[in-house]
Structures are given as C-alpha cells and as structure tokens.
Amino acid sequence: MSSTRSTLRDGVFQLAVVIILLLLTLAVVFPFLLTVTSSFADSKELLLKNVVLWPKHWTLDAYKFLLDNDQFVRSFRNAVVITVVGTAINMALSVLMAYGLAQPGVKGRTAVNFMVLFTMLFHGGMIPTYLVVNKLGLIDSYWSIWLVGAIAPFNMIVIRSFFQTLPKELKESARIDGCGEFKILWRIVLPVSMSMMVTFALFYAVANWNTYFQAILYLNDSDSYPLQVFMRQVLIVNPSELGLDVTDSGYTYTPAVRHAVILLAALPLLVVYPFMQKHFSKGMMVGSVKG
Predict the structure, then answer these.
(1) Which end of the chain is less congested by CB atoms within 10 angstroms, N or C?
(2) What is the C-alpha separation between 227 and 219, in angstroms, rounded?
(3) Where's the ABC transmembrane type-1 domain (predicted)?
(4) Residue 42 in 3-state DSSP?
C-alpha cells in the first residue's frame, strides 16, 4: 500500500514538474513568436488589433524601412565594433590577469586577489568613474566603454580558479623544454581551456552587445551610439496614442518596425549561440572544483 502511495506521489510530482516547465516554456516562447509574427504584419493591422499571432498579410516593409534607415545601419555597425573589439579586450586582459594570479609564486598575489574581490562588493560610483574617464580624455570614445568594463571580477576569478585546477606537470614540462610563460599560456593552457574561453567570451559578448548606460553616459555624438540606444529611441521616444513615433530626424517608427528592431537586435546572439552551445554547456562548470 505504501509503495502504491509512493508511486502515486512520484507521478503527481513529475506531472507538476512537466506542467510548470511547459508554462515557463510558453512564457518564454510566446513573446518571441509574437515579436516575429508582428514584425511581418501590416502596421494598420497591428494598430487595430494590438496583438497579431498570424498576420493576414505578410510584409517585409518594416525590415526594408530599417535597412534603408541610415541611423539603424550606423548603430548596428557601432554595436558590432563595440562587441568584437570589447570582447577581445575583455578576454585578453581577464585571461592574462587570471593566469598571473593562478601562479602560486607570484608576489603580492594575495593582495591583488583581495582588491579584485573588493571591487565585487564595493564600487566607486557613477560620478567618480565619470570624472576619471573625463580626466583621461576618453569622453566620446569607445575606449570609455571598453576600459571601464575591461575586466569583470567574477569572470576573472572563475577563470583563475579553472587555471589552478590544471595539472602542474603540463607547465613544468613546458618550462623544462625552455618555454616562457606567454608561450605556455598560448600553446598549452589556452588549448585545454577552450570550453572556458568560449563560455566567458559569450558572457562578455552579450554584455558588450547590450551596452546602453555607458554609451549614453560617455558618448555625446549620436553617430557613435550603439544599437541599444537606437532601440530605446524606437520604443520609447515620443510615444503617441496611435502607436506611431516621429523623431526629430523625421523617422516614423510604426509598431511593426518596433517589433522588427527588437528581433534584429537579438538575432546576432541567436545565430551565434548554437555554434557555441557545445562548449558553453561544458564551460558552465569551470572553476567549480577549486575556488
């Protein structure tokens, strides 16, 4: 009898888990599908119905409008530059710092580790950071974005922890063969750390692609704004009761255009992620063995 009750409880529990997962999946998938279909819908239909799951007339007008919009093309190009260069800087500095701090014989290692940990708990604040950036003459330069967030302390600590788990024999044998530290890092450590590298490269790339606050804080030239700033202009600036936005530049952003720009902003990451999924799944566990 108790076995039957236990089996029944297990069945009910599994059913509840399945239902919860289905609801969570629906909560994620439904807005995405709604955005996709609405981006191909006629703007008049969207204005009348607000929600369109299956447009009566499919059209590419919203995408044609965006691709002909110099402001969108420029902001998309800026976002690509910020992401590619920024991610390269993030990974280079994080890996170099993590590798150095992972070596047990480095002097001052404990103090530097403490300072890195301290920055995770306390921050100088927006105004002091802005004053430093301004004093360095980095205003209106992408370097203000790249250098301020060059190293994420948490990411660096996890990378350092992963390097500490690597067998010492690998580096010792390389040193016996006459390899220097940079050559050991490039030829031995990085090849066996590919999953970790891809994982944190993806983290940094997403952060750079979604750059918004630092852009409006440090960049005064609108021609240098990345895609997220342009998307805010499309979605928020001058909303009217009819769902049409007219900016100072004369651009009209219809509801279909709004959905299209959201989809295009997410598209690069959606395209890249499947190619990184294999390494990403393994890399999620890096650094968990030794802290």
Answers:
(1) N
(2) 13
(3) 76-276
(4) coil
Say how many domains are in the chain.
2
Q: Which domain holds residue 271?
A: 61-283
pLDDT reported for residue 282: 59
Taking the model in full, what pTM does it have?
Answer: 0.82
> Environment class of residue 71 by beta-carbon count within 10 Å: exposed (0-12), middle (13-18) or buried (19+)?
middle
Q: Which two tokens stand for residue 103?
A: 């070596």
Using alpha carbons, select from 82, 44, 116, 106 the residue that is nearest to residue 218. Answer: 82
124 lies in the same domain as 204 = yes
Helix (H, G, I), strand (E, B) or coil at 194: helix
Main-chain dihedrals φ then ψ at residue 42, nearest 5 degrees? -75, 140
Domain-embedded: residue 7: yes
Handedness of CA 57, 58, 60, 65 (dihedral sign): positive
Are 144 and 83 in contact, with CB atoms under 8 Å apart? no
One domain for residues 29 and 69: no
- Taking all residues of the chain, what is their mean pLDDT, rounded to a whole number? 83
Structure tokens at 262: 């959201």
Task: Transcribe 71-121 into DSSP letters.
Answer: HHHHHHHHHHHHHHHHHHHHHHHHHHHHHHHT-TT-TTHHHHHHHHHHHHH
